[in-house]
Amino acid sequence: MIRVFVVLYLLIWNAYFACTHAKATEFWPLQQYDLRNWTVNDGLPQISVYDIVQDDNSYLWLATEKGVVRFDGEQFRTFNRSNTPLLENPRIQRLLWTNQQQMLIASSSALTLWQDDVFTAIELNQTESRRVTDMIQLPSGEVIVAAGQLYRLEQNSLHLWHTEINDVQKLLLWDQQLCVIKNNHLACLQGAQFQLHGMPIADNLQVNFATEYFGTIYVGTQEGLYKLAGDQWYAVTLPEQSAIQTMFTESNKTLWVGSDHALYRFVDGKFTEALDYTSNSPLNRIRSGFIDKHQRLWLGSQTSGLLRLHLNPALNLGSDHGFQEPFVWSISTAEQKLLIGTNEGLYQETAPQQFAPLSLQPQPDNMAIYTQWLNPKDSTLWLGTKAGLWRYRWPALTLLDTFDALAGIQVNGVMADSTGTIWIATQQGLWRYEQQQLTEVEEFADNRFAGIRYLYQSGPTLWIGTEKGLLRYHQGRFSAVAQETLANAFISFIGEMHDGKLMVGTFQHGLWIRHTDHWQQYSTPQGLPMDNVTYAEDTGKYLLWAGLQGVMNIERSSLLQPPLLFELIIDNTGFDTRNEFHRCCNGAGIGKGLGRGNSSYLPSVTGLIEIQHDLLHSPSRLTPPIIEQFFANDQLVSSPVVLSPQQLDWRIEFTVPHYERSAGMEFRYQLQGYDKEWKYARGLREARYTNLSGGNYLFLVEARHKGYPVWSTAATLPIVKQPFWFETWWFYILTICAVSMLIILSWKWRARTLLSRQKSLELQIANRTEELREANAQLQKANQQLLHASLRDALTGLHNRRYLEQTLPTLLVDARQKQMPLGVIIVDIDNFKAINDEFGHHIGDAVLIAMADILLRHSRMNDHVVRWGGEEFVILTENSSDLAALIERLFTTIRQAHWPHGKTVRCSAGVSCHPCDSDQYWSIDHTFELADKALYLVKKQGKDDWLWLQSKYPNEPQAAANLAQTDPQMLLQNPAITVIRSGSQKMAVQNRRSQSQQTPD
Fold it and tell me: Is the model's pLDDT at 753 over the cut of 80?
């Protein structure tokens, strides 16, 4: 029975998984969409957007309560009564873009036509209701306006059409035929007459919207959604019945319905999803929807402005999918289920996009699962952590073995080669596991290649990626690759393409593909926005590339035929990160990515990233820029641009309507006839010229995505400027004659004045010599002042490192003469970067100044306070007798102080004393190094504390050498080091010894 149950379970699971992925190609849940929001803070004149259309130039036009707005993806331009008195009523309710390149603008009391930046009034006084209730364009191109009765727009005026129809509420097309909703009846045009269809909609219902969907008519009323079935109208049951505020079709398969409480989605004629409005979400009170030319979904909200839902190939699987720890390090599979290594343990896939934690018995000492590998031969699970390697029985997850030789070492990857030998890549070298024995590979001993990051077998060759180059293991020998860059680069990934070509990813030189006779590089010099790789996968049509700067897909065909065609899926490059919702990827080693079926999985700091291959697409071709306006002397000039001689100051505004990563756009322009080279617009979408001479010019502008190699085709604008009279040919001839006469007269005058000038020059030389003598004296004085200023930190006024370098030899001599050790205190402000990130650098500077003031006020007369760098300070005290008490006073003052940003500031300190009788083996640099290691240990163990480390035997020859080779953590157990912690009884004893002996024991 158990076997039968297991078989049935597997069959049901496989069927469910297959259905889920089959549906995925047709229907994508809303969690796969990214939401982008624009509000008044981004330039909208008003927060409510009631209608959206797109013109032939790809501009979006928005209807708001403060005018009609044109949007290019980056900037909003508002048209209202400041542009034309026809928009005196700014409450725009409805827009219609026609195929005649015209736009109808309907407010609550007016109808206006816009074409070529010209507004024309459409008279409504002759209409039945004197206000527009709906507008539509028929397949024939005719524009029909409902204003009580039906009117046809002809030559910028309305003409009564079908007089038998009145009280029209809404217009729609049903099977390419015009239909109207009037008095809650549906009537459709058949031949030359309108015929009623079906029974009337329920009495006392106001129809706000009507559309055809899936072959039938749906209407939205103040009481809910209704549809026509046969001759009857039936209410469509929604999770919460309320007034319908918007309704539109995304395609012939999808219908969106917005109510007062939620946005509903119908797919293939069935209700599928609901997005409830919440107070903390911009997706609220949707009043309009629109599908643009590239099938992007735009929404207009009454309370949140403009929104865009973008179908993103990247889906973030986080806490809603079972992860209690969002920091993912590694990915693998076991029995066709995903295994996910996080910062706090191991998770297993329980259902598509659902995960649950696994219980390891016992758990590793370090729960950060940096890499993992399931050995199918003996069903053992190898887990490499940040501090060792653990082997478990699968699926029992009981511990089989730990490896003492790898304790405390980060494990980057585990794999078995074709002979069955298990190789282990660590941060301290390469290891083999054979016949139950773990041995270090001698060629990688002493960490000569730094960390071993990746292992990959291709044919008979084992490729080893290290932090200092790529190596290969073939026929029992290790050798470096011949390619110079790869022989020295940080290797972060190795894999293969479908055609067997080897791929090698680096941390600083991009991706390399090995062809038969050469290596081909793909990185920023080739026009890509990324130069590091943590994972790469050949999906067939695309090469998927993940790294610390995000994720992109490259068309495989463009790898051999430049330019490279790519699309940024996740952008952490800095070009458009303000609009990025994911953060990928992290780590370098085996298991930093996995392809399974039509998906790829990547680790991130916010959960698991799933990339849907079916949603990868080629980068959209950038449309040419648009030259929007030309201004001369701040006056708008319409095309063709012909300027008078007095119109000297030009401003040319341009843009490109683009709605994906618009912040990552860049432009270049050139005025032919004046500019010899292209000029680059640094964030501005305008060009300025002034005082150009008369002539014929041609202005060109091109656009591209930042980092992309290819510019768009150019938009052009011819400009003709009439010349001034002094720019004509006859003026030039007269000028040449006049200049010739002036040259002759000047020569004669010069000959007469040379003698008198010679005498004057002799006098000037004498005066100048005296002035130089005085200037030298002033320069010497200024040099003295500059020397004094060079010894001070410009921000805090404290001494700087240069002062310490000049003063320290004298202090060491005095300390030896006085037999008084020099105390060294290194103070570092905790979490200072967080202060800068949250409050800005000006607040960070104020915190540094306040810290410097505290250190100065509470230091003693013979103490030297130095700003060491950044948020780090050094106190060098000639009197170390009461050093612990001084540090405690400083910490108490810092904890109780009032800081510029209103929050508490904590700091950490490392302390050591330089012995007054030190010899050639122990220098002041060793004392500083010991104090710095003490500071490191405080930072590592929780911050907001201080630690005193003191060498007991500084004059022994090996003391300094042992200090450099000892891990900071081991200093705490080193018998040759005295450790003094804050607040302990040991410190009190140490202070008493300091007073009597002038140095810690």
Answer: yes
Highest mean pLDDT among 454-468, 659-673, 881-895, 973-987: 454-468
The CA distance from 592 to 587, in Å, is: 7
Span 350-370, average pLDDT: 93
- DSSP 8-state symbol, 321: G
The radius of gyration of the chain from alpha carbons, rounded to an integer in Å, stands at 38
Where in the chain do CATH 3.30.70.270 domains reside? 801-997
Give yes or no for residue 220 having a pLDDT over 50.
yes
Q: Which two tokens stand for residue 368?
A: 């950060």
CATH assignment, 801-997: 3.30.70.270
Positions of CATH 2.60.40.10 in the chain: 626-727
871 is catalytic: yes
Q: What contacts 479, CB < 8 A, 6 or more positions away?
A: 471, 472
CATH classification number, 317-460+526-615, choose in 1.10.10, 3.30.200, 3.10.28, 2.120.10: 2.120.10
pTM listed for this prediction: 0.65
Is CATH 3.30.1050.10 the right assignment for the domain spanning 626-727? no
**Over 70: is that where the pLDDT of 83 sits?**
yes
963 backbone φψ class: left, alpha, beta (φ>0; ψ -120 to 50): alpha
Where helices occur in 287-377 by DSSP H, the ranges are none
CA neighbor of 462 nearest in space, from 409, 502, 511: 502
Q: What is the pLDDT of residues 764-809, one digit of tens each?
A: 888 888 888 888 878 887 777 676 667 888 899 899 988 888 888 8
Q: Is the pLDDT confidence value at 707 over 70? A: no
Single out the catalytic residue among 871, 872, 888, 956. Answer: 871
Stretch(es) of the chain classified as CATH 2.120.10? 317-460+526-615
